[in-house]
Structures are given as C-alpha cells and as structure tokens.
C-alpha cells in the first residue's frame, strides 16, 4: 500500500471492512469553485455521484452525493489541483449505511 501516494488504499488494512466507510470531500481550492471550468472529477466518477450545479456568475459548484460515494478515489487521481481528499466516515454513519444496504437487498 506504500505505492499509493493519495493514501486511499491505506484504509483497507482489514479486508472485512465495508467499502462504503470512505468518502470524498471537495476542498476550497477546487478549480470549479474558483470560476475555472473543470469537471474532471465528475467525468471520472463511474457512479456519477459528483455533479455540478450552475450558479450565478458562471461558477459550477461541485455537489457530491455522500450517500452514494464509495470512496474509490477515481476523482482524486484526475483532479489537477488535488482538491479532493478521502476521509473515513464516522462509525455511526458506517453502521447506518450497512443497515440501509442490507435492508435494500432483503426487499
């Protein structure tokens, strides 16, 4: 895991842990937040959880659907300003996510 410079793989020490306990967070130095046209992260996201909302003044605000983000790291690799970080969800959020996924499978 030392080859991963972004630290995404460092969270996977325990192979039993759920894959959805990580989430991407977009930082303030995001090009799009600063008026520069860039949607690289949204285009790289296979699950389409990063979308852009056009605002007055021509800025496109990136919106991340935290309930669907898997923390896979695709958006990190493509971001030209390294404005995306991966964080571990609080344990209560992981438990709630596991319960909702388990409930959805049973339905």
TrEMBL record:
Keywords: Iron, Iron-sulfur, Metal-binding
Domain 4Fe-4S ferredoxin-type as annotated: residue spans: 60-89
Pfam families to which the protein is assigned, alphabetical: Fer4_7
GO terms assigned for molecular function: iron-sulfur cluster binding; metal ion binding
The protein's name in its UniProt record: Iron-sulfur cluster-binding protein NapF
InterPro entries in the cross-refs: 4Fe4S_Fe-S-bd (IPR017896), 4Fe4S_Fe_S_CS (IPR017900)
Keyword Iron-sulfur: yes
